[in-house]
UniProtKB/TrEMBL annotation:
Belongs to the disease resistance NB-LRR family. This is Uncharacterized protein. It is found in: Cytoplasm. GO terms for cellular component: cytoplasm. It holds the Pfam family WHD_DRP. It comes from the Eukaryota. GO terms for biological process: plant-type hypersensitive response. Residues 970-1176 form the Disease resistance R13L4/SHOC-2-like LRR domain. Keywords: ATP-binding, Cytoplasm, Hypersensitive response, Leucine-rich repeat, Nucleotide-binding, Plant defense, Repeat.
């Protein structure tokens, strides 16, 4: 059919449009139009290419095609200048006009498709032409799926299925044409006619999909129907294509002996045909079908794992690999003889028997091939793959890997597609096995029979994690990663079979036990446990309860408080909670008071019980009941509910004291509290627990007393009593003894342990000095020590998800306050934090709950609170840190090196660390055996991680160290003293997820931006003037902390970090501009939550970038001096569109503003915390801040406002709870009681001119704390008036701090 439009006429237009896209700086809407016009031009070229090959005598179709030509020629008036590379006066108008003129073409193409689909053909193009048409169509389909992914989301499934079948069809035709003998071309004719029609129909339909975003629901459903029909047409002709292919295969020996990639379809299709033949034959044994199914699986394994073209490049350097491929070709040749012969012959016993024999031989040969491939893989794999892996929260790590793999499956990276199928299989296999191991992961001691399979499964998952991350850094050829995943799946299958067998045996055993139990009856059950309760001593407090009577003196103030609360005459029932870390002496103290004669006389009855971590309600009820009344055999036979009622009746009307020791959770109390009546007669209940959160959950009158560690002096006095009784300590031991006592960190239990250790040594200074040097190690090595037992017990009873979080404190130095924000980011980067199924919060919120839980369990200490009452920083007790380090080493969780000798030996043994913490500093060199004595003045250190250097090279004052390769190490942190001028190389540490080297002055680190798996990167003292553009390679980075004291340039590639949550750069920098392509898409940095500290200026560019940070929650920045010539005034950047922003810190940098008439702030209404400094604005401008409805914390620092008087206005700062004024020139602060109705804390620092604090603060009922530092005498005096007023209002707890 003749057409008036030459398809090649679109080429020049397409080239010009592509040039415009690349080289022109277009606005986002215009660029979208250019891109749309380019796609339409490409599809129209394909459409007219098809029409030129149609041989259909259909007048209706010709008429419609002429209408299509008319529409295109009309639009061509706009397209002609583009095709001649002439730029119209108004490019935007020309493109818009061309698109409008093309709009009517869509329904016409729809009619063309309907007519073409109903027509038949008698003549086809040549095979090459049809294959070329299919390839071209596939190219356009790929563009459609790539560039219009969002608009065709509703058609994606149908479009992808169509693409797959077209690709399959083209492959079969291409191979058939190549190998089909002459004289058989007529057999291709029908196939080619239908194939060409399918390709033509696809080309027609693509244009409809291109305008999918303009389709109504009716048209959408119609296109879906047409896509499905087209899919069906291709599937109908595929069997005929396969038959022609099979003829070519039988006739060509070269095709039979060709690579597996040419024959995979034939083998799998033929095996499917064999299975169909055998299924209808009743005489075929089941084992034969099983072998055919197994053979089919083996062919798929060859296809998916062993046969990869990338492996061919390595056959010259790997002789074993070359031999492997020869083996595979040999097996394929045997298969080429077996498969066709059975299909061509009748099904008889002899042919089936021969097929079975051939299948067995093939399966054996496949087995040999797989073993040979595994040997090759193991020989190439790093030795560390066979090392032990961390055993901490193993199930949590499995979930972490599942989540990572799932994210990869949803990735749009084309590179992932190379291994997508294998990754999907790995994901499914891990997920299926996870359910089998949930119980053993939670209760390993109860499932000893599954311990070995669980350990192997965990190791396999660690290996999968290694292979996947190695694939992402392109560390090995593709076939290597395929093999790694294949053998992981094979191992999981073996483990799965073992687990199934064990479970079957266990179920049979349990059934037998149940049968025996039913036969024996349950009468003996009541007679065993209950009599054991009676036979026990009433209470055994162990070592802690057997302290000397003067133990109360160690906690004299706390003891007085407890005594007062027990006997103060207050009638309602009160609950007293005594809290403290393990080993502090809670039980001992309460036990001493419990036995006090005054307490004994005050209460009618007393009872005590120990809950422990294994709560048994019946045991506790009987334990208390037998201390307050007589317990008969009849009582022993009661149900739990009757026992609870019996206890209630026994206590009713009596003034009782119940001591509940070692409460681990709130639910035992909730379960038993109904048994304790409140008769308004002064009864008391005392708890001891290490968990602070239990107190907050008790609704009854509750008072909490915390036991803090005793002083060093008290520890030393207690130690002397333990060791010398009434004797005096020898003078030579006095100093070292005080040091040892101080090392006990105020724990009486630690004093007991060290006293027992010193009692076995000579009373000589040298002996005591040895103990002092290794005190913590001795305590931990003493497995029988109660302190170790308590710590071990606390750790064992931690939920699994908290264990790695606690052990991670071992990476921090002793007595160091750990900022909560950094700790949480590290936990998340390490994969410790996960959201539960129904949890709609964030990972950061979940991590905060983790930390609060550890604090509540007395394992972590709050060292600093934030202005809103949260935990700003925390730490662990030294003893707990040492325990964490020992446990981390035991569980292969963390390796800590102290000194360069240990660092140089890392990885040289069978054990390679998963996490590495370096506590070495430059001060170690003078004492290090690696270096000569004269190296006290070294000026430069180079650490080469993974390079084959000797332990240490010395060049004058320059030291170069080689650290052994550790390819599996995932975390590296440096916590030592600051190192200056250090160069790093990470050639064999490429899988790092966490790199925290904040304490190192980085001189040069060339390949740090090749660590593409990094999630957390912390660099301080960065000496370069700019961040390299390669930072954009770190596509998994979530936290970037960079220290720089001077100006630094940030590249535009930082916008490629689509997972970045925290961009924290210390120093002066501006946000890099965004490219036009970046801005036209939905903003990529939607994950960014915190940003500091960029310089921001008023202007459209700044606002355009910030508008993209739609989820920003915390911003610390500097406002620059910005003169707006339009309004002829100073303007600050507009931030009111950052609706998620909660914390904002702004410093001003520029010319003085005190003479400026008006400078308005424009902050988001959602801001809860605001810090301002350096603006020197008049106090009248503060109203814009006072009107922020959600503001809770306000800090005004360093002349944020200038002037001597601040007159507060009514209706402002209604929700403000924290106010800090620091280094202001304020003289008078005028306010009334209704100005700050929610104020809780006031902090004044170096406000030396302030005359007084507003007296109205004394009338604010919410006030809790006032802190004055560096303020005038009159200001301090005014605080006394405020305190008096607060006392008059009943607030005697007002905290006042003066300094």
């Amino acid at each position: 059919m003749e057409i008036a439009i030459d398809p090649c006429s679109f080429d020049n237009t397409l080239r010009f449009l592509e040039s415009v896209e690349i080289n022109w700086d277009l606005e986002a809407p215009v660029k979208v139009q250019v891109h749309t016009l380019k796609l339409k031009a490409r599809f129209l070229k394909a459409f007219f290419t098809c029409t030129g090959k149609w041989y259909i005598n259909n007048n209706g179709l010709k008429a419609i095609l002429r209408q299509v030509e008319d529409v295109v020629l009309s639009a061509d008036q706009e397209l002609q200048p583009l095709s001649l590379n002439l730029i119209p006066d108004n490019l935007v108008c020309s493109i818009s006009s061309a698109l409008e003129k093309l709009d009517p073409i869509k329904p016409l193409i729809q009619e063309v498709y309907a007519l073409v689909a109903q027509s038949t053909r008698s003549i086809s193009s040549a095979t090459d032409a049809v294959v070329g048409l299919i390839d071209t169509t596939l190219g356009y389909l790929k563009d459609l799926l790539k560039y219009k992914a969002q608009s065709i989301a509703n058609l994606k499934k149908e479009t992808e299925a169509l693409e797959e079948n077209l690709r399959y069809l083209g492959y079969l035709l291409r191979v058939t044409k190549k190998y089909l003998p002459r004289g058989h071309d007529d057999r291709l004719r029908d196939v080619l006619i239908h194939s060409e029609a399918a390709a033509d129909s696809t080309a027609c339909l693509m244009y409809l999909c291109l305008d999918n975003n303009k389709m109504d629901e009716r048209m959408m459903n119609e296109v879906k129907l047409q896509l499905s029909y087209l899919q069906h047409r291709i599937e109908v002709i595929l069997p005929d294509v396969r038959k022609v292919y099979l003829r070519a295969w039988k006739a060509s020996s070269s095709l039979q002996k060709s690579d597996f990639s040419l024959n995979e379809i034939l083998y799998l299709e033929s095996l499917g045909k064999i299975k169909e033949i055998l299924q209808v034959s009743v005489s075929v044994e089941t084992c034969v079908m099983q072998r055919i199914n197994a053979l089919e699986d083996e062919f798929k394994i060859l296809r998916d794992y062993l046969m990869d073209t990338s492996a061919q490049e390595y056959t010259d350097t790997h002789p074993k690999l070359k031999h492997l491929f020869l083996q595979i070709k040999h097996v394929m040749g045997r298969a080429a003889c077996v498969i066709p012969s059975f299909i061509d012959n009748d099904v008889t016993e002899d042919t089936v028997r021969q097929l079975d024999l051939d299948a067995r031989v093939l399966l054996e040969e496949f087995k040999v091939i797989k073993q040979e491939a595994r040997d090759i893989y193991d020989s190439i794999s790093p030795k560390s793959q066979r090392t032990k892996f961390p055993t901490t929260n193993e199930l949590g790590f499995v979930d972490f890997v599942i989540q990572n793999v799932k994210q990869l499956l949803h990735s749009k990276d084309d590179f992932i597609a190379l291994l997508w199928h294998q990754i999907e299989m790995v994901h499914d296999h891990i997920l299926s096995m996870r359910g089998d191991f949930i119980e053993i992961a939670k209760h390993p001691r109860e499932h000893q029979d599954l311990k070995d399979p669980w350990t192997r499964f965990k190791d396999v998952v660690y290996h999968i994690d290694y292979v996947v991350d190695s694939f992402l850094i392109k560390d090995q050829p593709l076939w290597y990663h395929k093999l790694g995943l294949f053998y992981a799946i094979e191992d999981i299958k073996i483990i799965s079979r073992e687990v199934s067998d064990i479970k079957d045996r266990t179920m049979n055993h349990v059934a037998a036990l149940k049968f025996s139990s039913n036969v024996a009856g349950i009468s003996s059950q009541a007679n065993s446990g209950e009599f054991q309760v009676l036979s026990r001593s009433i209470y055994g407090a162990g070592n802690e309860a057997n302290k000397p009577g003067d133990f109360v003196e160690l906690f004299e103030d706390e003891a007085k408080k407890i005594m007062e609360q027990l006997t103060n005459g207050i009638m309602p029932l009160q609950i007293l909670s005594v809290m403290g870390i393990p080993g502090i002496g809670k039980t001992t103290l309460v036990h001493s008071i419990f036995e006090n004669p005054s307490v004994l006389l005050h209460f009618h009855v007393r009872a005590r019980c120990c809950v422990t971590q294994v709560y048994q309600k019946r045991r506790l009820l009987l334990e208390v009941l037998q201390q307050v009344s007589k317990v008969s055999y009849k009582v022993l036979g009661m149900t739990d509910d009757r026992l609870a009622l019996k206890l209630y009746q026994s206590l009713k009307g009596k003034r009782y004291l119940i001591f509940v020791d070692d409460l681990w959770d709130i639910w035992p109390w909730n379960d038993m509290k109904a048994s304790f009546p409140d008769d308004n007669n002064g009864s008391r209940i005392v708890f001891t627990s290490r968990f602070h959160n239990i107190t907050s959950q008790i609704t009854t009158n509750s008072i909490t007393i915390f036991l803090n560690p005793i002083s060093d002096l008290s520890s030393w006095e207690l130690l002397q009593v333990k060791l010398f009784k009434q004797e005096s300590c020898p003078q030579e031991l006095f100093g070292i003894g005080q040091q040892i006592a101080a090392n006990c960190k105020g724990l009486p239990i630690a004093v007991d342990l060290i006293a027992g250790l010193l009692g076995t040594k000579d009373r000589k200074k040298e002996s005591w000095k040895q103990i002092a040097n290794g005190l913590n190690a001795h305590l931990l090595e003493d497995q029988n020590g109660q302190c170790m037992g308590m710590l071990e017990l606390s750790y064992d009873n931690l939920p699994n998800h908290l264990k790695p979080c606690f052990l991670y404190f071992g990476t921090f130095c002793e007595d160091i306050e750990v900022p909560t924000s950094k700790l949480i980011r590290l936990w998340i980067a390490e994969g410790f934090v996960e959201l539960q199924k129904d949890d709609k919060g964030s990972l950061e919120g979940a991590a905060q709950k983790y930390l609060n839980d550890l604090i509540a369990r007395s394992l972590v200490i709050i060292s600093k609170k934030g202005s809103r009452g949260g935990v700003k920083a925390s730490r662990v007790h030294d003893l707990l840190r040492d325990f964490a380090l020992a446990k981390a080493k035991e569980e292969s969780f963390l390796l800590t090196t102290n000194g360069f000798e240990q660092l140089s030996s890392v990885g040289d043994s069978f054990y390679e660390p998963y996490r590495l913490s370096i506590n070495s500093g430059s001060d170690y060199f003078p004492r290090s055996s690696l270096n000569p004595a004269h190296l006290a003045g070294i000026t430069q250190i180079q650490l080469y991680f993974g390079l084959p250097l000797p332990a240490c090279h010395v060049y004058q004052k320059h030291v170069a160290m080689g650290v052994n390769p550790c390819p599996r190490t995932r975390s590296m942190v440096y916590r030592g003293s600051i190192l200056r001028k250090v160069s790093f190389s990470f050639d064999n540490f490429k899988l790092l997820r966490v790199l925290d080297i904040w304490a190192i002055d980085i001189d040069y680190c060339p390949n740090i931006f090749e660590l593409v798996n990094l999630r957390f990167l912390s660099l301080n003292h960065y000496r370069r003037k700019s961040i390299p553009p390669e930072i954009g390679n770190l596509r998994n980075l979530e936290t970037l902390m960079l220290g720089k004291n001077h100006k630094i340039d940030v590249p535009t590639t930082v916008w490629n970090l689509v997972k970045l949550k925290h961009l924290l750069i210390r120093g002066s920098y501006t946000l890099p501009p965004c490219s036009q392509e970046f801005l036209e898409k939905p903003f990529k940095l939607h994950s960014l939550q915190s940003l500091s500290t960029p310089d921001l200026a008023f202007g459209e560019d700044t606002e355009q970038i910030l508008r993209g940070l739609c989820n920003l929650r915390k911003l610390s920045c500097r406002f620059l001096y910005s003169w707006d010539y339009t309004s002829n005034c100073i303007q600050f950047p507009n931030l009111d569109f950052l609706t998620q922003l909660e914390s904002l810190k702004v410093a001003y940098r520029g010319k003085a503003l005190h003479k400026v008439q008006s400078c308005k702030f424009s902050f988001p209404a959602n801001v809860k915390k605001l810090t301002l400094s350096g603006f020197c604005l008049p106090w009248t401008e503060i109203s814009s801040i006072g009107n922020l409805p959600n503001l809770q914390v306000l800090k005004l620092l360093d002349d944020a406002f200038e002037g001597t008087t601040w007159d507060m206005n009514e209706g402002e700062f209604l929700n403000l709870s924290f106010l800090k004024l620091e280094r202001l020139q304020l003289l008078h602060w005028n306010a009334f009681e209704d100005h700050l109705p929610s104020l809780e804390t006031v902090v004044l620092v170096n406000c030396k001119k302030l005359v007084e604090i507003p007296p109205c603060l004394g009338d604010i009922p919410t006030l809790q704390r006032v802190e004055l530092r560096g303020c005038s005498h009159s200001c301090r005096c005014s605080l006394g008036v405020i305190k008096e007023r607060q006392i008059e209002m009943g607030n005697e707890e007002l905290a006042v701090t003066l300094g």
